[in-house]
Design a protein that fits this description.
324 residues, alpha/beta, inorganic pyrophosphatase (n-terminal core), Diaminopimelate Epimerase, Chain A, domain 1, 2 domains, six-stranded parallel beta sheet, 11 helices, 12 strands, binds manganese (II) ion
């Protein structure tokens, strides 16, 4: 649970890294930036780091608009065992968090836990955005919110909750109210409009081409590498089709397949269903309405793959429904 004094205590010696999940999205970046400023308020310096790329426009514009500095893990050559890591918007042992040599001392996250891990400090609460948890530390402790920090956190909340339409809790709404007073709301409105890049259209195009629907479940495949955040956006897009109430989008990676799942049905828990579907060939998990995972699939042509994925999720949905 939330205990700022304890967090500051364990972060007050050694070199501190704040690590987001791989391919960080706006909520991960906002949370890391917010935490960095929070620690700075107590005289603690830290470095934000990530694996994968932050190549999506929504992520890149955050860095330039809010003056956020993040270092790719490939550019950190001197991390050692005594360095300390705080994971944000991610938890140790998950497939979306590269295990680094430093010691994971703390975790602040809003995802359900898939693999238990002992941290010196743990604040994992299921809310719409990790940025809401970070904001609460500022509010509860009366720490001033700079305009750039408030704007970044607000952007993270908006993006992760799909503009307050997904997984929203009272805390998200409360924190939105607080941040709104300090944020650059005109800038945020402009950022929200321009989130689609020209290159994204290619991924949308192939997903649309491959889409198949079985009852109320939609499947789509992207046969080339693309960022996690884009796969997630396409999963949201497929879910917006009126006949689809549960979407499964998977994209090729050089060593397997990245999955993104969305559900609008309370009786189909996205996190549980993907966990069941991928448990023998990889791993997956997440929230009731949004989840992700990574797995290897048997080799074969696209038709064979889609057949396999369909079978895996069909069985997982059955299993989840039967467990009631
Ligand atoms: Mn998040």
């Amino acid at each position: 649970m939330k205990d700022l004094k304890k967090l500051i205590e364990i972060a007050s010696d050694g070199r501190i890294f704040i690590q987001t999940h791989n391919y960080p999205d706006p909520d991960a970046i906002a949370s890391a930036f917010g935490l960095q400023k929070l620690l700075e308020h107590y005289g603690i310096k830290s470095t934000i780091c990530y694996d994968g790329t932050a190549e999506k426009l929504s992520a890149l514009t955050m860095l330039s608009n809010f003056g956020i500095e993040m270092v790719a893990i490939s550019d950190i050559t001197d991390m050692c065992e005594t360095d300390k890591i705080i994971t944000v918007d991610a938890q140790k042992y998950n497939s979306n968090l590269t295990d680094l040599i430093g010691e994971e001392i703390a975790c602040i996250d809003h995802h359900p836990t898939i693999f238990d891990c002992e941290y010196g400090y743990r604040d994992v609460r299921i809310v719409g955005a990790c940025a809401s948890l970070i904001t609460e530390y500022f509010i509860d402790n009366h720490i001033p919110l700079e305009r750039s920090v408030a704007s970044a956190l607000l952007y993270g909340i908006k993006m992760d909750t799909a503009d307050f339409s997904r997984g929203v809790t009272h805390l998200d709404v409360q924190m939105y109210g607080k941040l709104f007073l300090h944020a650059d709301n005109d800038l945020l409105d402009r950022m929200k409009i321009n989130t689609l890049e020209f290159a994204d259209l290619k991924a949308y195009g192939s997903a649309i081409e491959s889409i198949s629907v079985f009852e109320n479940v939609g499947y789509a495949f992207i046969p080339f590498e693309c960022p996690d955040a884009l796969i997630a956006m396409i999963s949201d897009f497929i879910l917006a089709l009126d006949v689809i109430e549960f979407s499964v989008v998977y994209a090729k990676r050089n060593d397997g397949y990245k999955f993104s799942v969305r559900s609008e049905l309370p009786e189909y828990h996205a996190g549980k269903i993907i966990q069941y579907a991928l448990q023998d060939i990889g791993s997956g998990g997440g929230h009731a309405r949004m989840a992700g995972g990574f797995a290897k699939l048997p080799s074969g042509d696209d038709a064979y793959l889609s057949h396999e994925v369909h079978n895996l999720f069909e069985a997982a949905i059955q299993r989840y429904v039967n467990e009631g």
